[in-house]
Amino acid sequence: MALKIKALSAAIAMLLINSAPTAFADTIYYNSTGVHSSGVWDWQSLGYVIGAGDNNSAELTLKGTSGYDHAFSVGKDGGKGTLTISEFSRNVNDTTYFSVGSVTKENMTLSNTEGVLNLVGADIGEVTTLGLDIGSSGFFDWHTERESTVTGILNIRDGAIMNVGEAENFSNNKAYVGAGNISNTGIINISGVGSALRLINNAPYYGDSVENGTLYLGFIGNGIVNITDGGELSAGRISASTTLANNGPATVAKPPYAEINVTGEKSRLVIGSQMILAADVYDDLQSIDAKLTQKGAGSAVLNVSDYAEVVFEGKANTDIDGFDNPVSGLFMAGNSATSAIVNLNKNGFITIANSSLSSDKDAIIAGDGIYAFNLNGGTLRVNDCSYCEDTLSTEVDMNVLARSTLESGDNKQMLLKGSLAGHGGIVKTGAGLVALAGKNHYLGGTWVEEGELRTDNDDAFVNNTPYTVNGGKLNLNEHDLVMSSLSGKGGVVDVTTANLIIDQNSNSLYAGSFAGAGSVKKQGDATLYLSGDSQQYNGAIVVLSGGLDSSRAVGGNISVHNGGTLSAEGYLGKTQVMNAGVLKVGSLYQNKQTPVSLEIDRGLTNSGSILLAKSGNIKQQQVGNKLLVNGNYSGQNGDIYFNTVLGNDTSATDRMIVTGDTDGTTVVHVNNVGGKGAYTKKGIELINVSGQSQGEFVQKDRIVGGAYEYFLRRGVGTDIGNWYLVSVQPAFEPDPTSPLDPEPVFRPEASEYGANLWAANRLFVHRLHDRLGEPHYVDSLTGEEKVTSMWLRHVGGHTRFRDNSGQLKTQANRYVLQLGGDIAQWSTDERDRFHLGIMGGYANQKSNTRNYRSGYRADGSVHGYSLGAYATWLQNNEEKSGAYIDSWMLYSWFDNSVTGQSLTAERYKSKGATASVEAGYTWKLAEKNKRESYFIQPVAQLTWMGVKADRHREMNGTWVESTGDSNIQSRLGVRAFIKGHSLLDEGKERLFEPFVELNWLHDTKNVGASLNGYHIEQAGTRNIGEIKVGVESQLGKNINLWGNIAQQIGDKAYSDTQAILGVKYLF
């Protein structure tokens, strides 16, 4: 029955609501859902519209533009009513109220229920025509005065606007959210671009009156405001989780709670005057000693994130804590035992716009209690304050949880006296000033994008953290600082008179500049690259360790300590450089491939190393860098390095120019960059001195180019103050009466290349008797034919020769081990004999060459292996005489090295074939008795030497090529020997053959080397005379032993001594 009655009531209500235009003076009741689209209806005489609905949870939707002058109640007596107002812009007078829940006497009350009021905009484009306007003294009370638990929800969305207090009289417009008793909660959701709740505030307040246009959150109860997706809340004052009173404290039994969440792009919370978080009593604002006092406990949270913004733009004037200047925009967080949390999250903003948050004490941003101001990637902004002296001054501590921004507008200031701590970093933006005066501990680094970031005490800038300056100024303000790194795209680091230490272990680039008159000290293993202009810097720059690289002008005095490196180009103005480390001409960061210059304005003292030469491989090395010292140069046993293309007098080179005087001693190093070497007259100028040249520049190590040796010498005559590289020894002053020029000085390495090639072609060269090693060529005792054999020979030799210039003397020692054996023997007529065999060997030679003019020496070595074969024909007859022909061919391969004095060892390979054909004839001259006969054996031999060395490029760029390969050596000689045995050896199968041999040897080519096209050859080897003596023996039926000593003598002091010992076993 009850259901039928409710249904009937609903039908009647719908009929009445949707009928033709009618004047009503009474109340309309309905129990279900009503939807009204006004139009031509006249509602002026309407009384109350009350819907109870099922369980008193009715819903009512009002649409249209007609006026609603009376009360609407949806959800009676504790029900959960929902009232939706859509496309409605008619003003509501102060006799009209909307009640979602029970009817009360207030104009706009949600009470005793969990009702919902929806303000829904029809179109974003029409947001200015939509909204709910509450009249001149409109009162929006989103709370309850009863003891029960109440939740009220106000949804403002889709471009709807709610204005509270927008008439001529603006006083005392207030909004209460969750401001009832104990735990009552109100929720306001403002979402969508254009949606807004506006508490109008155009009148000033003066301490004894309540601020108009005020939003109270958690006024004893709990209040929550969610501003999302472009929504906006505007209020003159926001008091979150607070009791606000003019006279004394309020009694609070349990803690209230308030939360404001501002999220989403274009979402805004605009505060015109005050924002108070978790402050319980706010006493007389006009009092000079106005303070917050704890009268209870409360909590409040403000969350700002995702490109949302909280804006302080108040214009009210008041005196706070003794300030005479107008101050507004009150922002308090935390007091005594209360708690307040401000979470300024990623991409969130707090903007101080046309407001001043400033005080000497805690009245503006208070932090006496349990509170948290969290910078979590958002922005604290000060902007557009035309009358403020200090735009924001606070002693509140802040937690820097992520990289967050401090922004001060043009001519604005932000003074942060509290502590900044946490793992995040801070970013300074805006054209104004941010001054840090607290003891800070944030670890995430510091960025300056524009404006000025200043430290006001020793602990405000955090030591041992990274700093990045992309614009603006980082002002040390006479406070020392240690940076873990410095980087950035521009701006200024104003050292003032402080000490700045940059202690970094990873490379970084700073494109800005330094200013001030303090000191900048670089330490740590990494390099700091500077690309900005610091010419106006008047302080000191000290490179303690690691590198400092400058590609622009730098001012001040510079000192480079041992372990430090300064690389620079351009201008070191107003600068005296003290170098005990490394000074490099040229910026490593710029890495230019063309010559660069460095100008030092006020003198240079060098006890370290100066590198004009750019290091790297030969292709990367550049020549032509210049060091200009405007002033005096003092050498304190330091070093200086030059790159030079070693050639004639006009060769390209690095240079040092000193406009003043020189003193002390400096060691000079010269690196040849591809120079081929050439004869010099005056020499290649390295150092030019305009003043008194009292300093000494001493050559370190050798300077070589091609086949030439260079020397550092002081000039002569009018050039006596300058220093040159000359390839003659010694430096000379030309004699006009003598047309003769001194000889150039050649490198000993040139002869060593030739010595290695000479050995590679001759180590395995041998003759028939060196290998055969048997008396004559028959078994005279038995006549047996030996079908196979194995032989081994050892050779040791010593050679001396000179080069074709006469400056170089070379001597070498060699050793050869050669092993072979017959693999076949046969005869065609039972009197001759053919041998076919194979052989292999190992050999090495070590040599050294000395230039007697320069005193320099070089060492060479060659070692390698060979494999080959031989074939021999021996004629025999009853008279024991006859002819022979012997031939062989070998392939050899070698590893070579040449090491010049004070030069890097050069290593290369050689390989190739050698071949020989030899012929001779043996005559028996006489026979003394049956045991002793005399023989003579003329011989001729041709040997082709085809071992070649690889073309080689030295570390200094010199190209080395072998010369004299494919030489053909001819030998003509005669051998005389006695064959026999003593009476004691009769019947013991022993036979001895002592001999003496004379030979003439001729080479078609001289062996040598070409260094960059200049040939250095062996001298005295074209025609050589040789004498050899030895003995060959048969010690038993199957064993032969032989040995000999040979001496060769040639022209130009050539000589060679060799000894052979061989053994052969016949199977």
Automatic annotation (TrEMBL):
Keywords, A to Z, come to:
Signal
The Autotransporter domain, residue ranges: 783-1067
Q: Which InterPro entries match?
A: AC_1, Autotransporte_beta, Autotransporte_beta_dom_sf, Autotransporter_pectin_lyase_C, Autotrns_rpt, Bact_Autotransporter_VF, OM_autotransptr_brl_dom, Pectin_lyase_fold/virulence
Listed GO cellular component terms?
A: outer membrane
Source domain of life is: Bacteria
Q: Does the keyword Membrane apply?
A: no
The signal peptide annotation in the UniProt record is: 1-25
- Spell out the PROSITE patterns in the cross-references: AUTOTRANSPORTER
In Swiss-Prot or TrEMBL terms, this protein is called Outer membrane protein IcsA autotransporter
